[in-house]
Amino acid sequence: MTRARDAQAAAEAGADYLGFIFYPKSPRGIRQERFRDIAPRLPDLPKVAVTVAPDLYTLAQLEGLGFDYFQLHFPVGLSEEVASWSKLVGKERLWIAPKLPPGVNFDPALLDLAGGVLWDGFKKDADAYGGTGSLSDWESFRKLREEYSATKWILAGGLSPENAVEALEQTGAECLDFNSALEIEPGVKDLERISQVRVSISEATGLSS
Ligand SMILES: O=C(O)c1ccccc1NCC(=O)[C@H](O)[C@H](O)COP(=O)(O)O
Predict the structure, then answer these.
(1) Is residue 120 lining ligand 1, measured as CB closer than 6 Å?
(2) Is 161 in the pocket of ligand 1 (CB under 6 A)?
(3) What is the Å distance from ligand 1's center to 189 Cα?
(4) Domain range for residue 40?
(5) Which residues of 109-144 are buried (b: 16+ CB within 10 A; e: fewer)?
(6) pLDDT tens digits, residue range 100-131?
(7) In 3D, which of 65, 52, 60 has the Cα closest to residue 118?
(8) Which of 20, 35, 63, 193 is the most buried (most CB within 10 A)?
(9) pTM
(10) Whose Cα sits closest to atom 10 in ligand 1?
């Protein structure tokens, strides 16, 4: 989210969380000053600060903005950093999003440090950590979610109104993350596409939200 009106549309479509990306290399990033500016106009939903391998100073700054959760993307091999993020924000508020190249397994030891895992698509480019539109490995997500059921598992990566129902059916996910497939351009949501998510899911499940 970069605009209050998009956040409002997401709330009306039944979103449970709102995400704000503070990674400077993201085309949909928001600066801390801008977030402070729109914060009073945002719906009353839990808010998630998203960034890539932050230093502790930056993470403390984001915490100071009043976020409920911290979704931190990182390359493999940063377990010490994950431990320090967990210590700073607390395990339950930390959602980890490891960038796992194909064939590299998720390290379950990380679950001692984080309350949630965002399971994202992979793209090789060094700076690509999210918002790439690449599907994630749904089968691995399903297995991990079943095996480690105490953790909050969030399915991400290329989700759209067109594939959301299939994603729910194939993975049993309770939480889906939508991003680039709902945009007119990076950082600007398509309000019609946002409401289509609600329509597709409610048509398929018979639920109204
Ligand atoms: O979206 C970004 O630009 C981004 C950049 C760096 C780190 C994370 C980022 N997004 C995080 C998300 O939670 C996205 O929603 C997730 O990657 C899925 O995006 P998409 O494949 O576009 O649906």
Answers:
(1) yes
(2) no
(3) 13
(4) 4-205
(5) ebbebbbbbbbbbbbeeeebbbbbebbbbbeebbeb
(6) 999 999 999 999 999 999 999 999 999 999 99
(7) 52
(8) 20
(9) 0.97
(10) 130
